[in-house]
Each structure stands twice: as structure tokens, then as C-alpha cells.
Specification:
Blueprint lengths: L1 E4 L10 E4 L9 E11 L1 H8 L15 E9 L12 E4 L8 E5 L3 E3 L6 H6 L1 H14 L7 E4 L5 H12 L3 E5 L5 H7 L3 E3 L6 H8 L5 E6 L4 H8 L1 E9 L13 H10 L7 H7 L2 E4 L9 H16 L7 E6 L3 H9 L6 E5 L1
Parallel strand pairs: 8-9, 8-11, 9-10, 11-12, 12-13, 14-15
Antiparallel strand pairs: 1-2, 3-4, 3-6, 3-15, 4-5, 5-7
Helix pairs in contact: 3-4, 3-10
Length: 340
């Protein structure tokens, strides 16, 4: 087995390739011979030491892979085969072989590329939970997606459009053309525009019915102010905590101090007729039937051509540091993958 290990918290270069014996699946598990692994911002946060769910170093991150099942544990009826599967993992995905509970493995539709199978699970499930399950986007709703060109954002744009919403997003200017080709209704350059004012102009003063915000800190307050009455703000990340390639304590303190605790007080929410919700897919590991239903709905959309991931870059497993750096520099459009 080859795997990329985080031996200590630090910059991308701490990622170290290590080798060891292949793991054996336990009861209820299957072993996946990995083809591709998805790279997510949570992996970056874990490397920096600011992701509370991550175990202490040394650790192997990675929440999603594609590959084939080559061994099964006791009590598993899934037979090893060359059929492509996608799998969710609670860490450990940066490897060429991985054991996971069988309920976290999904057989892919015929013809799905292995790259797509690794790009969909975390980002698509997160987007679906926000737009379809909790945010309940309806036809005609105004949806604002921050980081619309990122891994989650790219799929969220497609899901919102599939639900008949008017979709706007924030992104740097170099990514606007790609989002416009995707069919977004309007893009705001967060470097040069105030997105609250820009959204007011784009919606003739209406504001947003639903906003997806992965940045956090003081940014959440600005998103909250951009909501229309009865609007919903969904918080699903803390990207604003990360500045630079090392843990930045000043950025962390600014982030915490910027959280709008007063605005989000229950009495203020009542008076404002606004809603705040949080999403963390990593805390739904015990909800296998619920996740299975969401995956089935997403695969139907994929098969219908309504949900297609964009693969930004694919790096060999041993170049995981470059993948992390690309995410931290916000240079990607869509998904960054590792090839096992």
C-alpha cells in the first residue's frame, strides 16, 4: 500500500509518501483498490491543524475515492469485481488501497469515468443537502453561491438550475467565463465588487432567498444582510480561517471575532424572519440510509446530464502537496483529484 501521510501540521510539503502492507477488510467492510481520490478543503484544514474532526498526526486524509472492490470482510455479500465504485471514507483516502464499510460504497452507472466517480461524493452530497434537503430551493428562488467555481460551488450551480432557481455566484474574474458557460445567471467579482450591493442590483433590490457560504467569520454577516425576508443562509465551511500555507493564528482570531453572534441570536432571527442553517457532511456517518437516498437522487441527475463535475487538475498521489497548494491558492475551477 502507498499512502500520503501528514506526519505533522504544516505547509503542503509536509505530506510524505509512505509504503506498507495492504490492509485487510474487517467484518462488514470491503477493500477498494483506489483509482482516484478527491481533494477537499477539509483535507487542507486537517493538514494545518485547524480541523477539529481530524485525528492528531500522523494521519492520512481523504474522504472520497473511486476504484474497484478486490476483497471483502466477513458478512459482506458484495463480490470482488472490476466494476467501478465510488466510496466515502472517514479519512484514509489518499492511498492506493482502502478499507471502508460496505454501506459507504456505491456501484457507479455504466460509462461513468473513474474521475467523475471520485469527484462527486463529498461535493455533490454537500450541495444536495444544502439545496434540496435543507435549503429547499424552489423555482424562481434567488440563490447566491459563494465560491461558485469551486468543487462544491460548481455542482451547486447545476443543482440550483435543475431546481428552477435563479443562480448567482461569487468568483474571481478569471473564472467568470467558465461559470457563464455553465449557465449561471450572474457572477460577482468578490475582489472588486461588494457582493451585497451587486446582488441588490442584479435582483432589482430583492436580495437572495438562499445563500451558501463556505467562508465564515465576518463574511457570514454580510451574507445574512444580503438575504431577502424569509431567506435562508447555509453555513458549510470555514475557508476564511486559512490564510497562507501554515497555520495563521491572527487569521484564526480575526475569524472568530468576526462571527456575528449577536445577529444570529434566536430573538434577532425571529424579528428578521430569516433562517440560519449549518451543514457538515462529515457528521452524518451514522445516517447511511439517508445518504444512500441522496446518492441515488444525484446519480439520476448525473445520468440525465444535469449534474457533471468539472475536473480541474489531476495530480499523482506523490504530488499531493501541489494539489493542496492549488486549493489554498483558490486557483481551481471545479475538482482537484489525486491519481493513485
Amino acid at each position: 500500500m502507498r499512502q500520503m501521510v501528514i506526519p505533522r501540521h504544516g505547509p503542503p510539503e509536509v505530506l510524505t509518501l509512505q509504503q506498507g502492507p495492504d490492509p485487510l477488510p474487517k467484518a462488514g467492510e470491503v477493500r477498494v483498490r483506489v483509482l482516484f481520490a478527491g481533494v477537499n478543503f477539509a483535507d487542507v484544514a486537517a493538514r494545518l491543524g485547524i480541523y477539529p474532526d481530524a485525528p492528531p498526526p500522523p494521519l492520512v486524509v481523504g474522504y472520497e475515492v473511486s476504484g474497484v472492490v478486490d476483497a471483502v470482510g466477513e458478512g459482506v455479500t458484495w463480490a470482488p469485481s472490476e466494476a467501478l465504485v465510488m466510496a466515502l471514507a472517514r479519512f484514509g483516502g489518499y492511498a492506493d488501497v482502502l478499507c471502508v464499510p460496505v454501506e459507504q460504497v456505491t456501484l457507479c452507472p455504466p460509462g461513468m469515468p473513474a474521475e467523475h466517480a471520485a469527484a462527486l461524493p463529498v461535493n455533490a452530497l454537500t450541495a444536495y443537502q444544502m439545496l434540496a434537503v435543507m435549503g429547499r430551493a424552489q423555482p424562481g428562488d434567488v440563490v447566491l453561491i459563494h465560491g461558485a467555481a469551486g468543487g462544491v460551488g460548481w455542482l451547486a450551480v447545476q443543482l440550483a438550475r435543475a431546481r428552477g432557481a435563479r443562480v448567482f455566484g461569487t468568483a474571481s474574474a478569471s473564472k467568470h467565463a467558465a461559470l457563464q458557460a455553465l449557465g449561471i445567471d450572474g457572477v460577482i467579482d468578490y475582489h472588486t465588487q461588494d457582493f451585497v450591493e451587486a446582488l441588490q442590483d442584479l435582483t432589482q433590490g430583492q436580495g437572495a432567498d438562499l445563500i451558501l457560504d463556505p467562508i465564515g467569520g465576518g463574511h457570514w454577516l454580510r451574507s445574512y444582510r444580503a438575504l431577502a425576508p424569509t431567506g435562508r443562509l447555509i453555513l458549510f465551511g470555514q475557508a476564511g480561517m486559512v490564510q497562507g500555507t501554515r497555520r495563521n493564528w491572527r487569521a484564526l482570531v480575526r475569524w472568530v471575532l468576526g462571527v456575528p453572534w449577536v445577529a444570529f441570536h434566536p430573538l434577532n432571527l425571529i424579528n428578521a424572519n430569516k433562517g440560519i442553517m449549518g451543514v457538515n457532511l462529515g457528521h452524518l456517518w451514522d445516517e447511511a440510509p439517508r445518504i444512500r437516498a441522496w446518492i441515488n437522487a444525484l446519480l439520476e441527475l448525473y445520468s440525465a446530464g444535469k449534474l457533471v463535475p468539472h475536473i480541474d487538475q489531476v495530480y499523482p498521489l506523490e504530488e499531493a502537496a501541489l494539489a493542496h497548494r492549488r486549493l489554498q491558492e483558490h486557483a481551481n475551477i471545479g475538482k482537484v483529484l489525486l491519481r493513485a
